[in-house]
Structure prediction request, 1332 residues.
Amino acid sequence: MDDGTAHERPPVDFDDCGPAMHALAAELFPICRSITGDGVRETLAILRRHIPLTVHEVPSGTQVFDWVVPPEWNIRDACVLDERGERVIDFRRSNLHVVGYSVPVDVTLSLGELQEHLHSLEEQPSAVPYVTSYYRERWGFCLSHEQRLALPEGTYRAVVDSTLQPGSLTYAELILPGATEDEVFLSTYICHPSMANNELSGPVVAAFLARWLASRPRRYTYRIVFAPETIGALTYLSRHLDVLRERVVAGFNLTCLGDDRAYSYLPSRDGSTLADRAALKVLGDTRPGFTAYSYLDRGSDERQYCSPGVDLPVASVMRSKYREYPEYHTSLDDLDLVTPAGLQGGFGVLRDCLELLEQNRVYRTTCLGEPQLGRRGLYPSLGTKATHEAVAVTLDLLAYADGSRDLISISDTIGAPVARLYPLVETLVREGLLVADDAGGPAS
Amino acid sequence: MDDGTAHERPPVDFDDCGPAMHALAAELFPICRSITGDGVRETLAILRRHIPLTVHEVPSGTQVFDWVVPPEWNIRDACVLDERGERVIDFRRSNLHVVGYSVPVDVTLSLGELQEHLHSLEEQPSAVPYVTSYYRERWGFCLSHEQRLALPEGTYRAVVDSTLQPGSLTYAELILPGATEDEVFLSTYICHPSMANNELSGPVVAAFLARWLASRPRRYTYRIVFAPETIGALTYLSRHLDVLRERVVAGFNLTCLGDDRAYSYLPSRDGSTLADRAALKVLGDTRPGFTAYSYLDRGSDERQYCSPGVDLPVASVMRSKYREYPEYHTSLDDLDLVTPAGLQGGFGVLRDCLELLEQNRVYRTTCLGEPQLGRRGLYPSLGTKATHEAVAVTLDLLAYADGSRDLISISDTIGAPVARLYPLVETLVREGLLVADDAGGPAS
Amino acid sequence: MDDGTAHERPPVDFDDCGPAMHALAAELFPICRSITGDGVRETLAILRRHIPLTVHEVPSGTQVFDWVVPPEWNIRDACVLDERGERVIDFRRSNLHVVGYSVPVDVTLSLGELQEHLHSLEEQPSAVPYVTSYYRERWGFCLSHEQRLALPEGTYRAVVDSTLQPGSLTYAELILPGATEDEVFLSTYICHPSMANNELSGPVVAAFLARWLASRPRRYTYRIVFAPETIGALTYLSRHLDVLRERVVAGFNLTCLGDDRAYSYLPSRDGSTLADRAALKVLGDTRPGFTAYSYLDRGSDERQYCSPGVDLPVASVMRSKYREYPEYHTSLDDLDLVTPAGLQGGFGVLRDCLELLEQNRVYRTTCLGEPQLGRRGLYPSLGTKATHEAVAVTLDLLAYADGSRDLISISDTIGAPVARLYPLVETLVREGLLVADDAGGPAS
Prediction:
């Protein structure tokens, strides 16, 4: 890990980094990623220009829990040629045109025979669908339904210039040490070809969150993982389960963070972990129209992170959720759907969640009864009808800082946005009236 | 117990046994049952032609908790004769015409004097009410209010040819052993004279449930009791309390199971026992318009089974509940009100509850992370937008099979009918991916 | 403590003591109370004619938790004189005209300079506001906004003939011993000058509750405290915290008990203490339109009694709550706002709460199954359709008297007003069918 290099990069205005994130997404967009292969490596190489990732390779054939790391897939070219030799379906135009993990083929066949290898969406006739066949050997092409209907009868040649052979699965991680060994876990995936919201918004926001975290003091240690979905998450888990279960206090699966539409939340399986509480507090305080999904609506790596016996406290805070927006898993999930403002929003809501995790502690008052705030200039010296209003939030904070509630709980109880408590806590700690419960000094 | 004889009876189609149950109810209908006496014995003798009941006699005077088994009551005849010697109120026409436990009498008296011994229902003028006086010596007659108003002035002779003397209380039980000593307890009562929904539907459905249970493998042992209400239940409890408290995991009080109208549920006092959970799951999944009563609406033997210090997990699943339908405790509760289809419905809902008890176990997954269902043919090999739908219930079942939830809880959590889980569980157990928690093999 | 003298006072009809309470409030009304000084002592001397209070003095400068007992304030006179020497603002007309704890002054100044020392309410132009400055040395006058606007330009003389010097803080307490050392804590305050609902209704109702308690057998010991708000409550706590935390099972802060309008409830910080449960049960059963506030709406001595580390079970049952009625903390909070009927209502609701605390115990049945109520004359001997109605509450009480629920909980569960249970409990205890759990004799 070469943590130092990150500090030499030009400073970022984290309140306005949407354009920079969008530019990074645009750079990554054309690469043909899959669950293994050079597309993943190329992607990580570009990300390493922003954050000091450590890259790991896990050989094909490695057992990971109930799974086995598959052969590595690489592809140079793929097309369907018509009788005149024109590339009517062309991988070079969009890597979505080939079914992921297609085995090599070079075959001439009738349109009828070709149809069995074609995939399109009748209900979205202009979109090229995203299709994969990781664990069964197949080849195939994806195209718009419009184009499919227009294909003339005749003879076609289908060519997939790919390799599927022993190699390795590639993932990367970054650990940003904090004041404690307790960890916040961030995970995102890097296995989808040219799609923007469901996928690139995730690694791009993860990279900029890492830069923001690197730029500030950290109470928690941060573990940030970039891995192919499912098999990558299982691989990472199989190598780090004990340490993750011991240290991780909260985690977020970073996906679907780039469009302009909804904010949304998908809980951990448990539903009441610190990650869930932080997400719901931030979203409730600041994005009140957000959509709350159920764990039954899950579909990303929380499937592994929250599985029985793993049980990590991992939730998802998203913009428009996978499977819930029409462009999902098609060529329409592009860099028009994902915008600088959308990415800034996705980055911002996660940053707020992480800021809350850093601020959130259990506090207790240091004196019995209410403290005399007046002599500290924190209470009106003149008692009138209006006295109470002026100090209500401070008094409420003191009333519930009883060593049993963290700031999230106090905010819930007193009905004040949690961010409004941060400066009040700072003042009361400075005055010696509040103390973090893990910093000694109980009152009772 | 002559368990073997039951197996020699002709086989029953348990999906269409309503007519057979109705025929049995019709055979039992004319018998004059009470809390003691030959009517109970005759009833049990008929039931023994269907199931191998063991009959017990408990002497009058036996202390059962706070109560004492009363003298035995038997009746040969009863009538009110008019001045011409005509039987104007006649026990031979309906045994409801005499107040239950009427002491012997042969007296001549004026209409005014007779009125003090008559019972009718002004608000249901054509119905003969059901009235008893078990614990205070009385005699009386019941008649329709219409008939009562039409009685001419004059002299009447009232005759009750009954005996009330030391004898015994009669009850019966059947134990069907299962793979474990844990028991399911079924109780019904046999103390009402000619009434069909509130009473005969109970013993008739109980008899056919016993035949169905006898015909299949059983994880649980079943204890099925036929006893007079209240004093019989107390008697049974006083003799078996320790074993019941130790072994019974769920129980149902079988009553009011024969009409065509509602399905209803009355909880145990605790309200969250396995019996309650099974009843609510079955009714919610399959009889969604059912009526849920409160324990405050109780009125049958749950009053004893759920009393403080007894605390058996006994709930009631019924059709139209006692006290809630107009024909209750009158001559209108007859074999027109109770129908073959109504009995089939009552039998069916209880059979579903018992099937659920048999199926319901705590499962846990045998691997960390999601298993690779694809190589077992349980997951689509082609990854598309629609992949998730196809396997959602299987994945949800695996996600919540964490060793802390039984199938009822998983069904509640994932929103799938519990019966839909039975075949999925069977497949996953066969594949070695799920294991019942009480069968060893934890994952974590 | 001269407990005996209380018994020599003339008997009170506690169902009609509103006029006597109003007369006592009228006697106390003119006295200029503050958090220290002779007004408090004079008030307590009058209250001692009704109840045998013990009076305590705590020297200025005494540390109480985070606070220090302030210098003692006394005032003989105060006025603002116009150029003709007329007392245009006159303490003698109402003690609200001077800012509480005003330091001595005798100064001549222009209207403009005087304005900086004047307080009025633009939104309530006819009311004189109540203003204090306990912990910062100031002087000032309060007047109606109407009068303020009418003050002509010119020269004024402001005179405050007060003393602010070392002395003591005065409070009083009364302990009424009961059968147990467990205590019920009643607290009220005596620091506001001429205001009736928010303040005098509190000590007046407290005094009459004390007389009612003295007149009857008591299961609990009662500790009744009259102290200045905040600093007095803190002072009392600092001297008695250990014993209060050990013994107090429930407490009420007595304030705002005299108007005719609302009934209201403000919970303890915990919200589920015995005091809260008793208050909610009485209000819910008998004053169903009551207003339930949140602890966030607090503003009286529960701020101290419920603070972290103190955590006494103290709730408030009030009529119109401080800060919620327009006359609050102005000259309009007078003896027209507070009425004999209003005080009787405030007294009555608190008496009901204390009666409930006395009656409320955990009961358990002494037999298994339902007892045979019939042979005790508690169950109809004739069994008919209507049997259940007649005894439903008794049966429900027996069904839930399982040693885990007190009467409040049973009342909640069975939906019967708790006061309806008192005579039933008495009967069942007399019959030996119920036993208080703390009096031995478990059933199971």
Notes: The two ends of chain B are 46 Å apart (CA to CA).
